[in-house]
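Exercise 7. Given the components listed, write out the predicted structure of the assembled complex. Treat all entries as one system.
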Amino acid sequence: MSYLPRKLTAPMAVASLLGALSLADITSADGHAMSTYGPFPVTLKGYTGSKTNSVSYTGQIARHVLHDSIKKLAGKGDGGGNAASMEAEMMAYYAGSKKNKAIIAPADKGVFNFKQETLNEISSGKNLSGKTYKGMINGWPGQMTGPEVITSMIKHAAQTKGGFDPSTGYNYPQLISKFTMGAVSYNQAVNNYLAGKLAADSKPNSKPYKDGVHYTGKEHSWDEAFGYWGAAAHSLNLTSKQNYDIAKMKDLDAADANGDGMVDLKSEYNFGHAYYGSAFDKGGKTNYFNTITKAFIDGRMVITNAAGENLSDAERAELVALAGVIGENWQKIIAEAVFKYAGSVYKDINALKEEMAAGTDTAKTFAKYGKHWGELKGFALALQTGNTNLGETAVRLNRLTGFGPVTMNASQVTGMDSQGNYIKDEAKSWEEYQLHMLKIQKLMIEQFGVAAQNNNQLDQMSALADQMGDSDSAEND
Amino acid sequence: MVIQDFGISFIELFLDPRKRIYLGYLLCAFAIALFWLKFFKKLSIAQAFSKIFDKKVFFSTSSKSDLKVYFINRMFTFFISPLLLTQIIVATFLFNQLLKIEWLSPASGYAVSKSFVVITYTSTVFLLDDFTKYIVHRWMHKFPILWALHKVHHTAEQLTPITIFRTHPLEGIVFSLRSAFTQGLAISFFFYFFGSSVSLVTVLGANVLVFAFNVCGSNLRHSHIGIQYWSWLEYILISPAQHQLHHSIAEEHYDKNFGATLAVWDWVFGSLHHSIDTDSLVLGVKTEDVNDHQSIYSLYILPIVDMGEAMKEFLWTIVNFRLKITQKVKRRDNA
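Answer.
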C-alpha cells in the first residue's frame, strides 16, 4: 500500500529539515521568495502558446466542491419518500454526471459570494468515485472497498430524515464527508501525487503532463497534490484565524486576494483538511497549515527552478523530503480531528446520562452525539487511507470506536448482512464506551503525537488534582 | 525579593481555606477554646483570654523555632518542590496501567447516581488520606531512620498552630510522596470507573470533611488548650488533648495516638490512649546528649547524623543476622 517505505521516515525528516533551512535560497525566477502558490512561469521546453502561468489544479477544486455538495445533499432526505431521487442525485455528484451540475456547497453566505455557480465553471467531467481509496475499509461493516463504502452510505443516507438514523446513531453527512476527505483527497495526494508520481520515470519534468498542455509532468503532479490539500493560493500570507474564517465564510477581505469582491473557488477558498489544519492551528499549539502550505510552495519552486529539465536526484530527494513533511503533518491533522471528536463523544455521553437520570428528552442530545460520532468515525477511517500502514494502531482504533455508536436502546451496529442492512447487537455500557474514547485520545497522543489536543478529556484528571490542592505541603499533623 | 515572596506566601497561608492555619479556622479554634475554658474549666472571660494568648507559649524559644523552621523550609521547598512527584503524575501513571487491563471495565452508569459517586469519592479521599497519614506517622515513630527526622517535630516544648510546620525537610519529602500517592490513587481509580461524574464536595475550595475537621478546632491539636472529648468519642475522633499526650515526654505515652483526624485507626491497631488532664504533661523529647533542641544544628544537621547512625545500626543488624544464620548452618553441617 505504501509507496514510501516507513524506514525512510527519519532520513526524510532530516532531509526535510535541511530543505526547510535552505528555503531562503529558493526564490522565484525574478529573485523573490514565494509566499503564494503561483503564479509560476511556463517552463515546458518548446511551448509556443500564450499561457504564462503553469499552475493548474482545477480538477481537485472541482472534487472538493463535489464533496461539499454531497455532504449537503446527504442531509436532504425526508425519511424515505424522496429516497430514490436523493440517491440518484448524490450518485450524480459522487460518480460524475454528463450534465453541468450546480454547486450546492459551498454556497453564498451574506456578502461572501462565490464567483462560480456550476461545476463546469471550475472543471468539467470530474467525479470522486474514480479517485476513492480502493483498499478494504476494515473499520466499516461489510468488508467493502472505499467506493463501495461511500456508495452504501449514500444509499442509506437517502432513506433517512435529514441524514440521521436514530436506530444506528449514524449521521451520514458527517460519515460521508469525513471519510471522503480522507479516501479521496488525502489518499490521492499521499499515495499517488506525492509518492509514485515523484519517481524519475513517472511524469518527467521534460515532457508535458499530457499531450497539448502547457505544464510539465512534475509541475502538474505537484499542483494536483496541492489542490487536494485544499488551501487557498495566498493562504500563507494570512493568519490561522483568517484561514479558518475563510472556510467559515466569515472573512471576505481575507479570502478575496484579487479584490474583485468575489471569492474564486479555484484559488481563494480553503477546503477540506486545510480548513481543519487552520482550525487546530488557531489554538496556537500547532502550525500544520503553514508547514504544509509552505512545503508545497517550496516544492513547486524546486520544480520551477529546474526550468523544464528532468529533475536531478538531489532535486527529487528534496521533493521527497517535502512530501514527507506534508504527509506527516497531514496525517497529524486527521489524528487531531479523531482526538477532538472522541472528546466530543465523551462529553455528549455525559449529557445523555444526565438527561436519562433526569428523565428528560434525549433526542436532541442523541442527534448531536451521532453527529460527533460520525465525525469521529469518518476521520478514523480517513486516517487509514494514507501511505502509512497503521497496523495495530488501526485495529485498536477500529475496535475502540466500534462499527457504530452505543445507542439509546443499548444496542450497537456489529456488522452488515448480505443485503447491506446493518446487524445490531448488545452494546457496551456507556461508561465502557466513554473509556474507549479516552483510550482513543491516548492512542492519538502516543502514535501521532497530536499537540493541539482539542477537547482533551484526559485533562479532567488534572482538574481533579487541582481540586485537591498542593501535594507538596510539608506539614506535621 | 525571594525573602519578600516567602513572607507573602506565609501570610497567604492564613488566607487560604485549604490550609490548616486559615484565619477562619484559627477563629473557630479560638471560639472553641474560649467556650471550653469558660464552661468546662470555669474560668472568667478575662482569664480565658489570658490563658489562650499566653505569652509564655507564643513567645517561647520553641515557638520561635517553629517559625524559624518554617522560613528555612520554604527555601528548601523552593528548590525541591519542582522535583517532587505530584499527584497528577501518579494518577496518570496508574490510570494508564488500568487502561492496559483488557478484562477490566467500568461499572454500568445506570447503577450509580452522580451524587453517589461524588459522596463516595469525597469520603474515600478523606479516609484514604487520614489512614495513610496514620500509617506514615506510625512508621515515623517505629523506624529509627525515620524517627531521626520526625524527632524534630517532637522537640517542640510548646505547641502552637504553627508547630505543624516544624518538620525536617526530608520528612517533608516523605509527607509529600504520601500525599501524591494517596491522591493519585483516588483520582485514577475513580476517574477510571466513574469518568467525569467524579468531583469533590468542597466548601471554600477545601474537601468538605477536611473543612469540617478544621472548623471543629483542628488547630487546637497543637496548642496548650487541652480539650478532652467524651470517652466514647475519643475512640472515633482524636481530641486535642489526645494529640498533646502524643507529644508527652512520659514513656507511658510513647507511640500513642498517631491519628490525624480519626482515632479509629489507633483503636484498631492498638495505639489508642484516652486523653488526660494536659496541665501535668511535659512536652518534648527526652535525650541526654542534646541540650539545645532549638538550634539550627539540632533541627537540621543532627537528624541527618542520627539517620546515618540508625542506618549503620540497621546494616549491622542485617550483617549480624546473616552471620548468625551462617554459623548455625555450619554447626548443623558439622554435627
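Discussion: Chain A has two domains: 6-135+144-160+169-326, 329-467. Chain A touches chain B at residues 346-347, 350, 353-354, 356-357, 428-432, 434-435, 438-439, 442, 457-458, 460-462, 464-465, 467-469, 471-477 (CB under 8 Å).
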